[in-house]
Amino acid sequence: MARRRKPAFGAWVYFTLAFLAGAYFTFAAVQGSFGVFRRAEITAESRALERELDKLNVEVARMENLTRRLSDTYLDPDLLDEQARSVLGLLRSDELAIR
């Protein structure tokens, strides 16, 4: 009768180390600093920052418009009237001020 021989101890060590290395690299590819989950976090953060940038661009455009309207080359009577009322406390003759 033929005897069955056990695999050598070195083969067990080799396959165990190969399995552990594969498991480590799989974990690193999914959970690591440059893994799939981190990429999803970066993408979400990028979208949030782009939305914030859009809001800031709108605010900058509004401020540029107000600055242009207050410049020497452009006179906006409504804005001038509003500024005179708020800064100087001026009133027209037909208005009443209630404090």
UniProtKB/TrEMBL annotation:
<dbReference type="InterPro" id="IPR007060">
    <property type="entry name" value="FtsL/DivIC"/>
</dbReference>
<keyword id="KW-0131">Cell cycle</keyword>
<dbReference type="Pfam" id="PF04977">
    <property type="entry name" value="DivIC"/>
</dbReference>
<feature type="coiled-coil region">
    <location>
        <begin position="39"/>
        <end position="73"/>
    </location>
</feature>
<keyword id="KW-0132">Cell division</keyword>
<protein>
    <submittedName>
        <fullName>Cell division protein FtsB</fullName>
    </submittedName>
</protein>
<dbReference type="GO" id="GO:0051301">
    <property type="term" value="P:cell division"/>
</dbReference>
<keyword id="KW-0175">Coiled coil</keyword>
